[in-house]
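Task: sequence design from structure.
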């Protein structure tokens, strides 16, 4: 891992430490903003590949199986549902509980734990990093940014 990626990983773990131990609910927004900036600058989803804490945990927990990889019935429907639920839950919680930081922190922590558990379950039942490539709501936004940049640069 090169030095800039190591620094990015350190930043994300520092932000997550702030979220979990200092109970600063807005640090999840710093992670998302950092992912967006990193994607704009590098024009690829290197945040997802090298920095994302959920991806890191999935890599550490992955155990290859001998059985064939299974595919869900409709991965695009799963992706749309997760995307909608994640962003609605995040935005509604910020709007409703912005003056009640304890409740907001707890709700965002639940969102992160739910995302991690969902990622691990999808990986167990389907394939390695299935969450990252097919269901992650932040990854979906980053993919949109990359596609927009490529479309804009090819149009010039």
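Answer:
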């Amino acid at each position: 891992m090169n030095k800039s990626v190591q620094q990015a990983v350190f930043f994300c773990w520092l932000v997550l430490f702030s979220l979990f131990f200092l109970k600063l609910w807005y640090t999840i927004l710093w992670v998302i903003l950092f992912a967006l900036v990193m994607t704009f600058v590098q024009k690829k989803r290197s945040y997802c590949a090298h920095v994302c804490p959920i991806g890191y945990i999935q890599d550490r927990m992955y155990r290859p199986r001998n059985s064939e990889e299974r595919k869900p019935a409709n991965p695009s429907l799963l992706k749309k549902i997760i995307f909608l639920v994640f962003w609605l839950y995040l935005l509604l919680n910020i709007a409703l509980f912005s003056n009640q930081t304890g409740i907001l922190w707890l709700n965002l922590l639940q969102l992160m734990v739910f995302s991690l558990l969902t990622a691990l379950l999808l990986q167990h039942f389907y394939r390695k990093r299935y969450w990252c490539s097919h269901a992650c709501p932040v990854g979906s936004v980053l993919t949109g940014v990359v596609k927009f940049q490529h479309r804009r640069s090819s149009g010039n």
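Residues 101-125 form the longest helix (25 residues).
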